[in-house]
Amino acid sequence: MANTKETIWSLYAALQPNDAARGLIPLADNDPARAAYGYSVFGMTPAATATDVLTLSGSATKIVRVRQVVISGIATSAGNIPIAIHRRTAANTGGTSTTPTPAQRDSTDDAATAVLRQYSANPTGLGTSLGPIDGGRLAIPTATSGALDRFVAQYSWLNEKGPVLRSATDFFAINLNGATLPTGLALDIGIWWTEE
User: Fold this and answer.
1) Which residue in 134, 97, 104 sits closest to 118, CA to CA?
2) What are the residue ranges of CATH 2.60.120 in the chain?
3) Overall fold of domain 32-195
4) CA atoms of 175 and 51, how far apart (whole Å)
5) What distances in angstroms separate CA 154 from CA 7, 112, 145, 190, one per listed residue?
């Protein structure tokens, strides 16, 4: 019986003879050829009993794939916060928010078409949720109490399908579940995504 690796390469060589002859391997789903964008906020003060603190809406012209979210923070009084990642099928209404400009990871890529919204006052109405798709609880230390905790959500690294935003009415939301937050909370949030 043929070696499994040899069998796979023989099949690949038949399907992609030029690439196999040059010793090239198939591209992974996370290949860096896609346009990639990122945004980070440091020391964000969320609303009291915060719900959505950051949303990313999809695009009318591109498919948006969320790749990673990293959240950490400090407070004057140590505590913890719940984090829920929601998929929404309608926009939030009300509240106080800004629309920060993300940065391209490659300056030759077009400007991002997905739209970020960062909330300093809770939306008065949350968009329809498909339910929380990810989440956890984050320990919040004081500035002098030692190591930071981090909430990290990485998508598509194990070849699973990550969150895909297919239209301008498709939303990815970072939500703090309406919880009472530690005094003096300052959040750091980083998010990056690709567009194609």
Assistant:
1) 97
2) 32-195
3) Jelly Rolls (2.60.120)
4) 5
5) 32, 20, 27, 12
**Assigned token pair, 68:** 């990673």
Lowest-pLDDT choice from 4-8, 65-69, 72-76, 109-113: 4-8
Global pTM value:
0.82
The H or E element that residue 101 is part of is: none
Q: Please say if the pLDDT value at position 153 is more than 60.
A: yes
What DSSP letter does each residue of 128-188 carry, written as one string? PEEEEEEEEEEEE--TTSSPPP-EEEE-STTS----EE-STT-EEEEE-TTPPPPTT-EEE
Query: Strand order of the sheet with strand 115-121?
Result: 96-98, 115-121, 52-57, 171-175, 79-88, 129-140
